[in-house]
Specification:
Oligomer: homodimer
CATH topology of the largest domain in chain A: Aspartate Aminotransferase, domain 2
Shape of chain A: globular
Family (chains A, B): Belongs to the class-I pyridoxal-phosphate-dependent aminotransferase family. Alanine aminotransferase subfamily.
Largest interface: A-B, 110 and 110 residues
Strand order of the largest sheet of chain A: 2-8-7-6-5-3-4
Number of strands of chain A: 14
Distance between the termini of chain A: 32 Å
Helix content of chain A: 40-55%
Protein name (chains A, B): alanine transaminase
Enzyme class (chains A, B): transferase
Cofactor (chains A, B): pyridoxal 5'-phosphate
Strand content of chain A: 5-15%
Subunit structure (chains A, B): Homodimer.
Number of domains of chain A: 2
CATH architecture of the largest domain in chain A: 3-Layer(aba) Sandwich
Mean pLDDT of chain A: 91
Chain lengths: 504, 504
């Protein structure tokens, strides 16, 4: 395919997996020779070798091993709390009392918090979060999600039956992708994914034996999405795959672009023309910073376009891990289906039933997000203040990152319109590229590992997200708190200048 | 294979999936025709059509639809809290404060609870359960699990690196099974599973395209496990599969047997002889009721057998969903590996990294289980009392269920030595079997659906767990609280007598 999948070599070299070892028998049942081949080839760069090394470095520092830096700064993953963001009080008050209902008798708990807790527990078996929920999730929370979507989109009533709760959006995304697996031979089902993309998609496509069909985002036009590129990508893919699905990430990860409404309409028309199932990854819907940018949900645009578009199949995803919440570790997310074949829906529910249910506490967090305090309720003031402060600070850091990287020679950086990342391009000298290839590493992997070893700054090489051949990038989050962010940018700039002068 | 897989027909008839419908195109991308074939054929009877109907009946009752019963009694699933079991105070106090650390300043929180909360949060990024953990789980909790295993088994130190936390044991079980998938053609990897078995295994084997190799438990000998049957099953399987794994469920689900130590030694020797990877599902390790029965972990027995057995590959699983905790909805579990190939282990960790991490709050619950209050700590007394009361009550109900079913004509029931289930055999009249087949249903499905519709009692037909051809069973939990249990047994007995007289 047209995408660059360079990370495999990098991983091989780090883990030192040679053909010799893979063939070794060593008397074991499960060896590299008998292992699921897709597990061998799949990659997930956001937690790949650079990050594994960063964790080691942290441990070494803690044990007093001298390093040219005092701390590791992890800008590799969209993990807000790990970078010092404080949880929203309302969310944690509800969660604490759902976990320990004895707290409901506390006079310190605001009445709207108690009310939410009682409603959630009322939907749980035996009024306990320790009971399994239905595999689809707690009904009253699904209803609140449906009401939230309706409010957000200003549209018609949403059927709670179309909402399935899950342990983060990732689980729902993987579940939907699983529907398209076919082991009976024949051509693989092709998934159109943006390049660069979030590696959950490439990893899962590989693991499930599906086909990756990359369409390039236009770096020269702020990572925008061109119809001609969609057509090229789709048409080329048909040589190899039975392409049935288009994945859109909006706001973009790792690219941070926010799609204008016309762009979404174009994509929907394109999907209709080629009979594609749309997967809309909208987990950053609260993270829009750029002036003039606005989030439009695929569901809303699709429905407003009328027949035949409002009959199209769509799965859209949301999560409690991003936005102003940043509650990654609590694992709450959902998929909303539109126009899924009813018989397929029955099979989907049967499929997820073998996994029992997602964490009920994660589901409770979803409730706090889709059913937050309303004006006039006792928690509203503090909730609003905390939420606004987080989003304002993220906006500031989005600008700071763009400006900082943009001002470094040999680096270009698009505006961070939304989400939590910048994806700057590094213009690497030929000598550096040669040095990397000599080590059987992707050049941006080589660069990122050197950055980590000499400064403690942990970013993810662009090759982990796929990128246009011959271009090199990295993804950095905008999550370090302002002071740490300045520290990181200083370390980065000094490393970059040294690196360029060494390899020019 | 030798197992009876009757449930498919039952599911087809309930969902009314005919070939006609499966071929329908209906203009959609994802149809029954294009759906992942394994999703169509997999089954998970514990949440299958009978249970779906039970949920409908509950809703109908709530809306005032007249029924021949006043309530639905769900004895289909091991969901203790849903059946009225109260959570352990210590667990919920820790969990509440991990979720909402503001509670740490409360004078009502015992010092040992605070201490646990601070330790857990100290292992979390930004001291927040909202940060992602490593994919393997929070390090300090893994360490506590390793210490727990060492205490339990009285053996050598356990390496925390071999412990991987997950969202319930199910997730770990599926992850280990995933290692054995091979889509490159050739023979399927065979998994030896007990018949009857817990349908997570049959469902996952089907979903992953693996091979199910059933070995029959000996109903005439209290669901014991015979070496000759293992040999027969293994040898026959080789005609079709490359059999590499043996799954043991101890204490047994759905059969409730507890394996004596000699039996475990026999299984380990058998596995060694045929070079099998052992998966030991030990989630009911705290649920042992019968006089003279005792839980022995596979890890302990394997290690104590010395060379070459102590070099064998073993994955053993535990969970917070069962035992005295019953915290199913919180999703905490783990796998401990022994002797896994180090390179395969690296690949395993890479594979789970794409799923980010399991719920940190579920991980915190694991901590409360493996690191409960110790004698002398302030929470110890109440914790001990609550734990003992739950286990004593389960033991009473285990006896009650066995005696009650055993006293009904046409039903035989083995002792419930452990776990949370009885798996009685129903001796169905020929006329009932014919009536069922005329409806294209398994006879025990037919029986269970009639039981549900006429009494509101929800059990799972034995065909969902596989059973010896020509025998019919059902699984019932022992979880209804004593009064409800008596109600259930009364409803059951009266239905059964009517059914038998109708069809004799």
């Amino acid at each position: 395919m047209q995408s660059s999948r360079g990370g495999v070599n990098s991983i091989r070299s780090v883990f030192n997996l040679s053909a010799r070892r893979m063939a070794s028998a060593n008397g074991k049942v499960m060896t590299m020779g008998s292992l699921n081949p897709q597990v061998k080839t799949m990659e997930y760069a956001v937690r790949g070798p650079i990050v594994i090394r960063a964790v080691e470095l942290e441990k070494e520092l803690a044990h007093g091993v001298p390093k040219p830096f005092k701390s590791v700064i992890k800008a590799n993953i969209g993990d807000a709390h790990a970078m010092g963001q404080k949880p929203i009080t309302f969310i944690r008050q509800v969660l604490g009392a759902v976990a320990n209902p004895a707290l409901l008798s506390s006079p310190d708990l605001p009445s709207d918090v108690k009310n939410r807790v009682e409603t959630i527990l009322g939907g749980c078996g035996g009024k306990s979060a320790g009971a399994y929920s239905q595999s689809t999730g707690v009904d009253v929370i699904r209803k609140h999600v449906a009401e939230f979507i309706q409010r957000r989109d200003g549209g018609a009533a949403v059927d709670p039956e179309n909402v399935i709760l899950s342990g983060g959006a990732s689980e729902s995304i993987r579940n939907v992708m699983k529907l398209f697996i076919n082991r009976t031979g024949g051509r693989k089902v092709g998934f159109m994914v943006p390049i660069p993309q979030y590696p959950l998609y490439s990893a899962t496509i590989e693991e499930f034996g599906l086909g990756q069909v990359g369409y390039f985002l236009n770096e020269e036009n702020k990572w925008g999405l061109d119809e001609s590129e969609l057509e090229r990508s789709y048409n080329e893919s048909l040589k190899e795959f039975d392409t049935k699905v288009i994945v859109i990430i909006n706001p973009g990860n790792p690219t941070g672009q926010v799609l204008p409404r016309e762009n979404i309409e174009m994509i929907i028309k394109f999907a209709k023309k080629h009979n594609l199932f749309i997967m809309a990854d909208e987990v950053y819907q609260d993270n829009v910073y750029a002036e003039g940018s606005q989030f439009h949900s695929f569901k809303k645009v699709l429905m407003s376009m009328g027949d035949p578009y409002d009959k199209m199949e769509l799965a859209s995803f949301h999560s409690v891990s991003k936005g102003y919440m940043g509650e990654c570790g609590l694992r709450g997310g959902y998929v909303e289906f539109a126009n899924l074949d009813p018989e397929v829906f029955v099979m989907f529910k049967k499929m997820i039933s073998a996994k029992l249910c997602s964490t009920v506490l994660g589901q409770a967090v979803i409730d706090t997000v889709v059913n937050g305090p309303k004006e006039g309720e006792p928690s509203y003031g503090q909730w609003k203040k905390e939420k606004d402060a987080v989003l304002a600070s993220l906006k500031e850091r989005a600008v700071l990152v763009e400006q900082a990287y943009g001002s470094i020679e040999g680096i270009t950086c698009n505006p961070v319109q939304g989400a939590m990342y910048a994806f700057p391009q590094i213009h690497l000298p030929e000598k550096a590229i040669k040095a990397a290839k000599a080590l059987n590493q992707e050049p941006d992997f080589f660069y990122a590992m050197k950055l980590l070893e000499s400064t403690g700054v942990c970013i993810v090489p662009g090759s982990g997200f796929c990128q246009k051949p011959g271009t090199y990038h990295f993804r950095t989050t905008i999550l370090p708190q302002p002071e740490l962010m300045r520290d990181m940018l200083t370390r980065f700039k000094s490393f970059h200048e040294k690196f360029i002068s060494e390899y020019k």
